[in-house]
Give the backbone structure.
Amino acid sequence: MRLGELNIELLKSDAKYRRLVGNLQGICSFVKCKGIVNYVTPSIKSLLGYLPEQVCEHRYDDFLADIPSQNKVKQRMEETLHGKQQTVFEAEVQHKDGSTRTFDITAVPINDESGKVASVEGVAHEITYKRWQRRHFNAIWRIRALLHRSCIFHWRTYRSQKSSP
């Protein structure tokens, strides 16, 4: 292949990548080893109300909701920044409007040629609604179980009263 053909292939590949990232339903980000956001996909605007340039060059934890449970999130992210592979974890993130959104975070440390952590690649999928659904579904099942037990109790009480002389 000639250089011109390689450039055309590279441009096509870049266009495919940009379409893929542009259609991503989550947020993809790169965080430098000091915890500074280096890159974030444009989808952050629709999910959290921020423009990418409002997030880049800020620490990742500047956008976490200010609640005590976030200390675990910070700990897991710091461990990832030091090279420890993590499982998916939940984080409460502050929307630009002040509300809180819940995300499943996948964070992977990326090493440079010398083996040191250069950055962390992360993908975040919003699960706020799914989490709300799960909580309400569980509550409905608990109520259903209570009603069921109550009906059985009343039925047995009724049957025992009816059979007594």
User: Anything to note?
Assistant: The radius of gyration is 25 Å.
